[in-house]
Amino acid sequence: MSENSHIIQTDIAIVGGGIAGSTAAVLLQNAGIEAVLIDPHAVFPKDFRCEKFNRDQMEMLERVGISGNIYAACTPIEDIWIARQGRLVNKMHYPHYGFSYETAINSIRAYLEKTDKLVQGKVKAIQSCKAGNRLILADGSQIEAKLVIMANGLNPGLRKQLNISQTMLSKQHEMAIGFDIEPIEGNKFEFDSFTFWPEKSSEKLAYFTAFKSGKSFRVNTFGYWDKDDVFMQAMKQNPEKALNILMPSLEKLIGKFKVDGRVHVRPVDLYQNHPEKCDGIVFVGDAYSTSCPGAGTGTSKAVTDVEILCSKYIPQWLDQNRFDADTLSEFYQDETKRQSDANSLHEAYFLKSLSLEKSLIWGARRWMRYFYHVGKGAVSGMPIIAKKTKLSKAA
Ligand SMILES: Cc1cc2nc3c(=O)[nH]c(=O)nc-3n(C[C@H](O)[C@H](O)[C@H](O)COP(=O)(O)OP(=O)(O)OC[C@H]3O[C@@H](n4cnc5c(N)ncnc54)[C@H](O)[C@@H]3O)c2cc1C
Asked: How far is the CA of 23 from the centre of ligand 1 (A)?
């Protein structure tokens, strides 16, 4: 990296330091490739995004060498309780990890060895130049790079400026709601993680999951309500009451609780951008295509993108000194990337159909899941009604 009359020159510039951009910066650093990461925040701020990883996602982070700091900062969870059709049907071993998104991202950024790898600023414009592309930051400073990695998430400004088209795949695909809960009136949560699946498709609920995260219990509730739905309105006024109306057996299963602090609401669209004709600019993570929060595939998709890009394609492109759109299209056509994107979309539509479809086949799929867990619960000798008895005492 060099500075020439206040223009930073580098091989790779990464716009946006969420999970995709921060992971890319660490992977390129570890490969000895010159790169800078540009993000408005030196320390990633509070944001409602992914708040738990499953074992496969942790293994993926382990594989790319960035799991150590996340393990140290997250809350490990060993077991999960599953409720279906209003009953607790299974308690199973299912290792996963609770965290806040900002904690995960700051843990990844902590792998950056030099502070000048992270430039604090917002990219306002991108122009082509002799070196490749020039980034103009809000404070007027400039960065020139042979290749720009766009990892700026949901921000549409630069995409529009670059005239990159977008296909809307599913407008308002899902509503994501996040908040903390606390047991009250002598109740104590006996689970580390609990997931409640809907009883009826008319509830428009995908699932409600409560899990330990630090000293709190965090809840992610995913569903298919629009913002004017009675449930969404009720959540604004009295979230405990709204949740108990939506899931009448919830309190019987986990005991009395209150919602603690702010309720975060995020409507999520599924879309795909088309940057394949850009010279010297490659899009990854949410900046390329979004995912369904309830399906839980967004971070795997983002890390898959940057793992392939940084370990396979960027070293080749630097060797050949080729960054034209035709060369970069190798990345978008990569079989692993295409499978990862396709899987993410499939899971998004599958969860929505499983939650909403009224046909016999989807009804059968819901019941199959119920009987699977009832069978598993019986095999593991789970005392299904014990919790009910204890909780009714507590209540
Ligand atoms: C509510 C919710 C819950 C979710 N739950 C899950 C889950 O359980 N499991 C899962 O796997 N996925 C989940 N996801 C999806 C997952 O969080 C995202 O797919 C993933 O975080 C995307 O990461 P990213 O790095 O592409 O984008 P982001 O994390 O959004 O990062 C984008 C970065 O770019 C920066 N930026 C934007 N514009 C500019 C600019 N002009 N200049 C410089 N920087 C810029 C932003 O400040 C930000 O730091 C969830 C998503 C949501 C919304």
From this structure: 12
Q: Are 143 and 248 in contact (CB under 8 A)?
A: no
Compare 382 and 369 and report the one with higher pLDDT.
369
Does this model's pTM top 0.85?
A: yes
Domain 170-268+359-394 = CATH 3.30.70: no
Pocket test for ligand 1, best of 46, 299, 351 (most atoms within 8 A of CB): 299
Residue (of 291, 282, 360, 391) closest to 327 by Cα position: 282
Can you identify the CATH homologous superfamily of domain 2-51+100-164+275-350? FAD/NAD(P)-binding domain (3.50.50.60)
Lining residues, ligand 1, CB within 6 Å: 15-21, 38-40, 48-50, 52, 122-123, 151-155, 158, 176, 266, 268, 285-287, 291, 293, 296-300, 302
Ligand 1, closest atom to CA 301?
19
Check if 2-51+100-164+275-350 and 170-268+359-394 are the same fold.
no
Do 90 and 382 contact (CB within 8 A), yes or no? yes
| Mean pLDDT (whole number) for 71-97 | 95
Give the whole-angstrom CA distance, residue 281 versus residue 146: 9
Q: Which two tokens stand for residue 211?
A: 């899990």
CA diameter of the chain = 74
Say what the pLDDT of residue 116 is: 79
Domain residue spans in the chain? 2-51+100-164+275-350, 170-268+359-394
What are the tens digits of pLDDT across the range 39-63? 999 999 999 999 999 999 999 999 9
High-pLDDT (> 70) share of the chain, %: 95
* 132-158 residue pLDDT tens: 999 999 999 999 999 999 999 999 999
HSE-up of 33 (CA within 13 Å, CB side)?
26
- What lies within 8 Å, CB to CB, of 187 at 6+ separation is 254, 255, 256, 257, 391, 394, 395
Q: At 168, which helix (H) or strand (E)?
A: strand 165-183
The residue whose C-alpha atom lies closest to atom 6 belonging to ligand 1 is 50
